[in-house]
Amino acid sequence: MKSFLKSKGFREFLRIALALFIGLGLGFIITLFVSEDPINAYKSFLLGPLSRLNRIGDWLEESLTLILLGLTICIVFNASQWYIGVEGQMILGAMAAGIVSLYVPLPPAPRILLAFLAAMIVGALWGLIPALLKAYYNANELVTSLMLNTIALKLFEYVLKNFIMNEKSRSVSSESIGKEFRLGTFIPDLPFLHNIRELWIKQTSVTVMVYVVIAAVIVVYYLLYKTPFGYELRMVGINGKFARYGGINVNRAVIMSIMVSGIFAGLAGVHITLAIHNKLISNMTSGLGFEGINIAILASNNPLGVPIAGLLYGYLRAGSDVMERSSDVSRELVFVIQAMVLLLVTAERLLPVVRTRIAENQDSDNRNNGSKNAKQLKEEGESHVA
Amino acid sequence: MSLETVIRGIFSSLFIASVIRISTPIIFPAMGGLVAQVAGVPNMALEGIMNVGAFTGVMVSAFTGSIWLAILAGIIAGVLLALLLGVFHLHFKSDLFIAGLAANLMASGGTVFLLYIITGDKGNSSTVRSLSVPNVNIPLIKDIPFVGEILSGHPVFTYLAFFSVFLVYIFLYRTRFGTHLRAVGENPEAATTLGINVVRTRMIALAISGIFAALGGMNLSMAYLQLFQKEMAAGRGWIGIAAIHLGARKPVGVMLASILFGFADAISNQLGSLNIPSQLVQMIPYATTVVALAVYAIQQRQAALERMKKYQKEHIDSLAAEHQG
Amino acid sequence: MQPIIEMKEIVKVYDNGVVANNGVNFTVNKGEIHALVGENGAGKSTLMKILYGIEQPTEGEIIVDGKSVTFKSSLDAIDHKIGMVHQNFMLVPSFTVASNVVLGGEPLKKGLIDRERVLEVTKELSDQFGLFVQPDAIVDSINVGQRQRVEILKTLYRKAEILILDEPTAVLTPQETQDLFKAIRTLVQQGKTVIFITHKLREVKEISDRVTVMRHGKMIGTVDTKDVTREQMANMMVGREVFLNITKPEMHRAEKRMEIKDISFLSETGRPVLREVSFNLYAGEILGIAGVEGNGQTELVEVLTGLKKSAGGRVIVKDEDILDHSPRDIRLKGIAHIPEDRLTNGVAIRASIEENLIVDRYFRAPYKKGVMLDYKLVDTKSKELIKQFSILTPNGKLPVGSLSGGNMQKVIVAREFSSDPYVLIASQPTRGIDVGATEFIREELVRIRTKGCAILLVSADLGEVMSLSDRIVTLYEGKITGVFPKAAEVSEEELGLYMLGIKHQTPEEMEKFL
Description:
The complex is a heterotrimer of chains A (about 375), B (about 325) and C (about 525).
Chain A: H1 2-6, H2 8-34, H3 38-47, H4 53-78, H5 86-103, H6 108-126, H7 128-137, H8 141-164, H9 194-203, H10 209-226, H11 228-238, H12 240-246, H13 250-277, H14 291-298, H15 306-326, H16 333-346, H17 357-369, H18 371-382
Chain B: H1 3-10, H2 13-38, H3 46-64, H4 67-91, H5 96-119, H6 147-151, H7 156-174, H8 176-186, H9 188-193, H10 198-224, H11 236-246, H12 251-271, H13 278-324
Helix pairs in contact in B: 2-7, 2-10, 2-11, 2-12, 3-4, 3-5, 3-10, 3-11, 4-5, 4-10, 7-8, 7-10, 8-10, 11-12, 11-13, 12-13
Chain C: E1 3-13, E2 19-29, E3 33-37, H1 44-51, E4 59-64, E5 67-69, H2 74-79, E6 82-85, H3 97-102, E7 108-109, E8 112-113, H4 115-129, H5 144-157, E9 162-166, H6 174-189, E10 193-198, H7 201-207, E11 210-215, E12 218-224, H8 230-238, E13 256-266, E14 272-282, E15 286-290, H9 297-304, E16 314-317, E17 320-321, H10 327-332, E18 335-338, H11 342-346, H12 353-357, E19 368-369, E20 372-373, H13 375-388, H14 405-418, E21 423-427, H15 435-450, E22 454-458, H16 462-468, E23 471-476, E24 479-484, H17 492-499, H18 507-511
Parallel strand pairs in C: 3-10, 3-11, 6-9, 9-10, 15-22, 15-23, 18-21, 21-22
Antiparallel strand pairs in C: 1-2, 1-4, 4-5, 7-8, 11-12, 13-14, 13-16, 16-17, 19-20, 23-24
Helix pairs in contact in C: 8-17, 14-15
C-alpha cells in the first residue's frame, strides 16, 4: 500500500485530481460573482447530468465523441507530433459516412459497415498531406494541419450545399438518414432487458457506438503498447535519435502516427453522423477540434485514461448545458474551467511533480559532457514549438 | 457576371483597398507573434488574445464612451493573457504549446461567458452601443484618383498595422532590447553569458505579442464593425502564425505573407460573384498558405542539399589536387 | 614578469562525486602565451571554467592582478577583464559579425543602435589586432576560422586583457591555424595575455612561452616551452597508464569481417573530418582506435553505423558494400553499436528498461508474433539480460532513466552484446560510469572477442585501448598515422607520438597490418 502511494501512477493521479479540484473551485468562485443563485447554479452544473435519464444519455453521447477525439490526439502526441488536424479528419470522415449511408444502395448491415470503413479511410488519408510535408520537408505540422482543417470544413460545406442538401429542409442539411441505416441502441434486444431498452430508446439515443468506442480504446491501447508499430511510434516520440540509432524508420513512423490517428477521428465523424445528428448538417463539428487535446493531456496521453477523461469532460459539458438552461450562468464557464485544468496539469513546477531520477540523471550527465549536450537536450525539448 | 467583370474588379481600386482591409487583422497578430517567435517563445494564444482584445475594447468603449480608454483596456487585457501564458511557461514550466491552447480556450470561453453576463446575448454585443475608431482621410492623397481610393479613408488601425511593420522592424533590428530579444531566441546560452536575462526578455516579448494581437482583435470589433461576435478572430490568429513561418520570420516577409493571404481572400470574394461555389472559392486563401508553406519547406531542403553538394565537390577537387601534388 | 593570474590549490568536486581538479596550482604571467595541455578528462576545461566563473571551485583561491577574487558568474570574470573563447562558439548565427561582437553592449545613437559605429568599432578592433573579419557578413555564412576571430573580437570588445582559448585549433585547417597564431602574437605584442588549451604539442612548441601539463585532475608541472621537447611533453601528458587487470586469452584471429576502404567524411561546414581511412576488422580480434578526441573517431563510428552520410569510400561486409545504408540495414548485417553518447543515442530515457533492450529486434521473430509484439517474451528475455549483465534494478518495467549511469550503460551493452553481433562497434563503452560497471563491460568485450566477434573499440581512455586491444590504429586529424599489430608490445609514449601527430608511418609500412 505504501509503495502504491509513492508510485508514479498514483502521484500523477493526485496531481491531475488536484488540478481538477482547483479548476472546479475557480469555476465556483466565478459563479459566486456572476450568479443570483450561485449554489443552485453550481449544483445544476455538478449534478445536472445525472438528474434525468435523457441527460445521462446526452452525457454519454457527448463523451463518446470526446473519447474518440482523445484517442486520436493520444496517438499523435505519443509520437511527439504537434498535429491538430483532427477536426478536418473528423468532418471529412463524417461526410464519407453520411454519403455512404444516404446513397450507396446496399442493405443496412453492409451499408453501415461501409460507412465506417469509408470514414476511417478518409480520416487517415486526409492526414497524409501534413504528414508527408512534415516527414520529408519538416514543414510545421501545426500550421499545415490547421489550414487543412479550414479547407476540410469548406469542402464539407461545399459538398453539402451543392450535392447533398435537402431543398425542403429549413437548415443546411441532408435528408435524415434512413432509420435502418442508423446505429441502433446499445442495449441488446433480449427479453429480460426489454423494458429497460424501451425506456432508454424513448429517452436517449446512445447507440452501439458505445461498443465501438470501448473497442477503440482497447485497440489503441494494444496498438500503442503491444505492437511493434506502437513501439516504433513511442520510441520516436520519446527520443527520435535513439529510434534512428536503433534502426527505426522515423519518417515512416511520423507519417503512420498521423494517418492511424485519422482512423479514430474518422470514427468520431461516424458517431456524430450516424448516432448524434442522423444526417449531415452544417457546422456539425464546431468547437470539437481542440477537445481531443484537453482529453489527451488530462489522460497523460495514456489511452486507458482517455475514457475517464472523456467521460469527465463530457460530464462537465453536459452539466454546463443543464446549468445554462436552469440558471443564469452560461455554459462557457466550462471552457474556463477546462483551460485552467489544462494549464495546471502541464505546469510541472506548480503542482507537486513526480520526480524520478530521470531529471537528476540528465543534470549530472549534462555537466559531465559539457554545455553542448545540455543545450542539445534543451533544444530537443523545445524543438516542437519552434 | 462574367469573368471579365471579375478581372476588371481585381484591377480596381476597391479591390486593392479590400486587400488592405483584409490583411490588417492578420498583420497585427502576425507582428506580435513574430516578436514572440524570434524570442524563442512562439505564442499559440494569438487567436485567444485577439478575441479578448476585441471583446474588452467593445465593452469598455460602450461603458466609458471613450475610444482611447477602450483601446488601452483592450491592450491591457491582451497583455495580461499573454503574461499569464508567460508565467505558466517560463516560471511553472508548462508546455508552451499546450499553455497557448489553454489560453485560447479560456479566451473564447471567457469572452462569451462575460458577453452573456453583460448583454444577455451569446452571439454578439449588438445590444450595447460601442464606438469605432475614426477613419483617416489623408489630405492631398485622398484627392488623387485611384491612389486616393486605395490609400485613404481606412480606419486608423489599418495605418497603424502597416506602421507597426516598420516599428517591429526598427524594434528588432535597431534597438538594443530588440537585438537582445533575437539573440535570446537564437542562442539563449550565448545571450546568458553576455548578461542578458533570458526569462525577462521572453516575458516582455510575450507581452508585446499581446499588445499586437489585442490591436488585431480591436480592428475587428471597433473599425468596420462596432460589435463583438463570438469567436470574432475566426482563425486569423492562426493564419498570423502561418504568416510568420511563410514570411521567414522577417517583418517585411511576414507582412507580405499576410498580404498574400489577404489577396487570396479578396480574390475569393471577387470570384464569389462568378458561378463558382463560394465554399471552393473560400478555400483559396488556406490552400494558398499550405502550398506556399510546402514550397518554402521544399526550397529550404533543396538549398541545404545544394550547399552539401558544393562542399563535397570542393573536397573532391582538393583531394585530386593533393594527389597530383 | 609578474603573475597576472594565480590559481592556488584549486579543488573541484562535482555533485556526482567526480573530482575534476585536485589541488591545482596555476600561474600565468602578464603578456605571455601560456599553453595548458592534458588528455581528455585531465581537468583543463574545468580549471578554465572556474577561472571564467562558469563553475565555482570547491576549495582554493583565485588571484587576479594581485587581488583575491570570487566569481559568481562569467559576468564577474568579464568585469575582471577575463575573456573566454569556447570550443563550441557562442554566436548568434543570423546576426552579422559586427552585431555579434558588440552584443550586450551595443553603441547607441538617439536611443537606436548606431549601426555605423557598430561596424566601425568592429573594423577598428579587427585592424588593431590583425583579426581579419568582414564586419557586415552574416555569421551563418562565414567559415569556422572567421567565427573564431569573431569570438576573440567579442572578448576584446569587452576589454579583455586575459584571453582563454579553449582548444581553438581543434576545428581549424592548417592555414587557419597559422592565421590564428599570427593573431595571437599580435595580441600579446599589444599587452594581452593568452591561455591556450590544446592537445597538439606541435602547436605548443610553435606558439607558447610556457606550458602547464595536467593529468588526472592534477598539475604535473609548468615549464618554459623552449626547454622541453615534444617527446618530453608527451610523456608528461600521457604518463604511466595504469594497466588494467584483465586476463585476456590468446587471440585467435580468423576471417576478415569488415573491410573499410577510403572512407571520407565532411563536416557541415565542409571541413574534411575523415580522410580516406582504411582498415579491416577480423573475427576474434579487438582493433582499438587511439586518438585524442575530435580527430574523427566520432564521425568514423557514425558513418560505419549509418547515422551519418559519408563523402565517399566503401565498407564491405559479407561481400556487400553497406556504406550509407540505413541504420536498420546495417544492423541486419549483424553490426552492433555501443554509441558514445548514452543519453542522445543509446537510450530512450522515459521508456522502460525492457523497451530499451529490444530496439534492434522488436520487429522480427520471435519478438514479433503476428501483428503483436510478444511482451511476455520481452519480459522473460529482459529478465535474463538483467540477470546476466547484473543490471541493478527492481524490475525491467521501470524507466531506464531511473538507473545510474553505469547501469544504463549496461542496458545498452546487454542489448548490443545479446544480438550475437558479427561485428561490434564500441564507442567510449565505459565513459563516465562506476568502476564496477567499467570492469564488467571490459570483461564482456574480451569474452565476446574470444568467442569470435570482430570488435572496433574507440575510447578516449588510452589505458583502456591499450589493455583491451589486440591491434591498435592511431587516428590524427582524420587520418591514420600508425598501426601497431601487437598492442601489447607498444609503449604509451610511442603511441602518444602518433596520436599527437608527431610521428607518422608511411602507407607502405602500414599496409600489411591494417
